[in-house]
Amino acid sequence: MVFPITDPIIGATLLDGAPTVPEFQSQVAEEEESYAKTTTGPFSRSSYTKVLGISWDDQSDNFLFDFTDLIEYARQLPPSKRSVLKFNAKIYDPLGLLSPFVIRLKVLFQVLCSNQHKWDEPLQGEILDVWNNATAELTSIMSVKIPRCYFLMNACPIDTQLHRFCDVSLQAYAAVVYVRSVYQNGHTEVRIVALKTRVSPMKKPTIPRLGLLGADLLSRLTATVCETIPNSQIIYWTDSTTVMYWIRHTKPWKQYISNRVREIHQLTNKDSWIYCPGLLNPANMPSRGLSGIDLAESNVWWTGPNFLKLDEKEWPVSADCELNDDIKSELMKQSTEMSHVLLTPSERVSQIQNVDKILDCTRFSSFNSLLRTTAYVLRFINACRKDTTNDSTINLSAAELNHAEKCWIRCVQSQSFKEEIQCILKGDQSSSIRVKQFGLFLQEGILKCYGRINNSSLPLSSKQPILLPHNHPFVTLLVCHFHEVVKHGGVNDTLTALRERYWILRGRQIVKRIINQ
Q1: What is the per-residue pLDDT across 438-464, written as a single tens digit (0 to 9) for each?
Q2: pTM of the model
Q3: What is the DSSP annotation of 427-457?
Q4: Structural domain spans, the chain
Q5: Across residues 218-226, what is the average pLDDT?
Q6: What residues pair up with 468 in beta bridges, in sequence order?
Q7: Nearest to residue 65, comparing CAs of 24, 21, 101?
Q8: In whole angstroms, what is the distance from residue 407 CA to residue 387 CA?
């Protein structure tokens, strides 16, 4: 029984339904000339094949790493910051299997950037030693052979589980996935599936916050791997009891914690998170880094922690998540309760700031439908107050739609730019970096930008655009609307149309992400 070669990161099936490896080899030669055999490296011509850039031994059915050309290339590079970046970019590892080794180069590059090292300035001291060791250790990694199939040949597992581990250090955080399969004869097989790593931010947060970043990274890796190995039980492991408490308990956390916990809840089941002692956590290796020799000889990395091969009764006992100082420090000091009522007839409907408590914009598929529904709701409120003349027409006017849009803009800004608005109202604009950076001011309760472009001949809406955040559902609908307005013209056209009226923080990034989705 041969399983398809599937990349859980890009979702590409390389061998789908082929009964034997030789038949696939013949199919490659006849139908796909781009999958050409190579003779580079120490592997024989008859057994070494390149498939989507990955070396595959079609005799033993293993993936290999051939760095012969890269080693020669590294020897010609001068030891500099530019060479570190070039060398790191040359390592092709789509599944992240070499991340314990590669993360050392990424951390090295971050150190060089933080020290403001010039691009072509020679490396010296300990940094030079790290560079020399990294280039020399590639040879040892070439001895690694990874089974292509997640399961044993000629056997069908009776139980399949996906075990996901996350861990952090001051330098990096990582998430790794293993598949555990149990067979009828009682044999248990554990194999690595995929991995993701990230270098810790330059402004180092606390270790518990970094741990939450690792859990969030693991949650994002969940969806792609589940598509590759469906119908499997999923178990999440972390060695941070603080992170487990944040995930398992719903409390008024601070914004940094609440945003990431919310995403974790959307992608995972909070009851599936289990405590794993740090010494047994295989994600320790990519978060701290390994030398090439240690990586090649690490059985724990390639076949998972030893306890996964045992019966579930012998697994680590989950620790209790107790309230500690790190957890208490992330609680909101005061949980503000809001009540939403209709205003008295003497008050104006334009003062409604929390329109999102009346309408959930995530339930709307388009920007126009959101505005039209909001306009009808506001019309109903005015009719209940009897402070306007009865309008027997069903169609909405342009003024009503503009008013609905302004209500949503005020609502979004009051949630995302509360500190900036308070600074402007107090007249203390120097205390907020963002207020000074964008020249923010309030007009009709709406936060707008003011800069050098104000001296141009552009329309006033372009010279003083409305400031919006990048991570609000309202902004997502707005970007989709303008993408349709420009007839799906791409990122640049959509962004140009948006900036005629709005300035979205990290605008290009959010527009690109939404369009690609």
Answers
A1: 888 888 889 999 877 888 888 888 888
A2: 0.61
A3: T-GGG-HHHHHHT-EEETTEEE---GGGGSS
A4: 68-141, 147-314, 349-516
A5: 83
A6: 504
A7: 101
A8: 19
| Amino acid letter, 488 | H
Question: For domain 147-314, which CATH number applies: 3.30.420, 3.40.50, 2.30.30, 3.40.1000?
Answer: 3.30.420
- Cα–chain-centroid distance for residue 470? 15
| pLDDT value at residue 505 | 92
Distance from C-alpha of 466 to C-alpha of 449, rounded to nearest angstrom: 6
* Between 339 and 198, the higher pLDDT residue: 198
CA geometry: angle at 279 spanning 274 and 284, to 5°?
85
Q: Which residues have C-beta within 8 Å of that of residue 35, sequence separation ≥ 6?
A: 28, 49, 50, 51
Quick: pLDDT tens for 99-157.
999 999 999 999 999 999 999 999 999 999 999 999 999 899 988 999 988 888 888 89
Question: Which helix (H) or strand (E) is 233 found in, with range?
Answer: strand 233-238
Closest among 315, 251, 223, 311 to 277, alpha carbons compared: 315
Structural tokens at position 253: 């956390």
Strand pairing partners for 197?
174
Is 502:466 a contact under the CB 8 Å cutoff? Answer: yes
Residues in the chain: 517
